[in-house]
Amino acid sequence: MTTLFNPQKPTVDIIAVTGLAGHALGSWKVPNGNAVWLRDWLPQQVSNARILTYGYDSRLLKNKSKCTIEQLASKFLEALKTSRGSESERQRPIIFIAHDLGGLLVKSAIAQAGASGINESQENIDVLKSCYGFLFFGVPNQGLNHQQLKLMVRGEPNEELMNALITTCTNEPSEYLKGLHEKLCERFKFNDSQVVSYYECYGTKAVKAIGFWEYLQGLLGLGPSVGLGELHRSGPEVMMVTQASATSGFANQKPCDQIPVERDHLNLVKFPSEVDQLYRDVTRRIDNLVLKAPAVVNKRFSLQFSRSDLSQEEQIYHQQLAFPELHRRRHEVDNPMEDTCTWIYEQDTNQKQQHRLMA
User: Fold this and answer.
1) What is the mean pLDDT of each run of 10 residues along the chain (359 residues)?
2) Of 2, 142, 269, 305, which has the maximum CB count within 10 A?
3) 151-170 b/e with 16+ CB inside 10 Å = b?
4) Are 42 and 123 in contact (CB under 8 A)?
5) Are strands 49-54 and 231-232 parallel, antiparallel or unpaired?
6) Burial 189-200 (b: 16+ CB within 10 A, else e)
């Protein structure tokens, strides 16, 4: 996790997660330039946000890692908690910006943070409550449409990861992606969160490994100058992530927050300038999320069950009423009535004792 901008008093954390075969900085660079819009432009629009970027090894070829999506997400969750170590940071709202596979890591990390039982911890609960905004760019919630990649990594250490990421031969999501969606819906039930999904309208040239004939053509100046066996985008154009796949990440996704983009998959998060229309639209969305996030997340934490203003005796009664997964239950109730059960704090000690004896 790398910090790109850290104001004196940040009110939110903006965390960017790159996609498949991406780079923590390079994926956010302008085309044909060195500027990184997350670092060089965005702070001018949202000066009260700490901006971080996260990278991970997801190279297609010569990748010795056997990490699955679940394991990569677990590492991301640990890095996320480490970057938010102090008490003030742990309850700071989070806005995620994710491209491609990065969005799946975000979803999986949230699902892991929301798991009950042995994985349940105050750190994970804090992460879960802090997640407010999601800007997803071409996230393959139902799988990546690129069957050729499966053939390229067959027998390689990262084969399991690619099989989970890419759609089946019948264009169905993998069992892993189906399970991830179910877990997320079950464990992340904050309907006050905001999700914006961007999806490509242009096809993207498929990646292929350069064979001998193509390599020879390159040497003769008749084709791209690429090494034998190296990857090059010279395959047929494919719609890497369909609209349906890109917009099905969360159950509470609104149609007005599903944005078509006239670019291919690779260029969804690459903006040529600060006056680029897509960049202006994206920063308007980010600015709106930064403005609303603190009030929403503060309310979530104010609803937690622990109360430091109670006497020791009252805290005992409070603990006796606790039950597993209480921190999530309050957010699962549709239209909860205010002041529910507050009568217990208005009863005198004798009445409370009678209630305890009757229980």
Assistant:
1) 96 96 92 93 96 90 84 97 92 97 97 81 94 97 82 77 85 91 93 96 75 53 57 70 93 91 95 96 98 96 61 60 51 60 60 54
2) 269
3) ebbeebebebbbbbbbbeee
4) no
5) unpaired
6) bbeebbbbbbbb
Do residues 18 and 76 lie in contact, with contact meaning Cβ atoms separated by under 8 Å? no
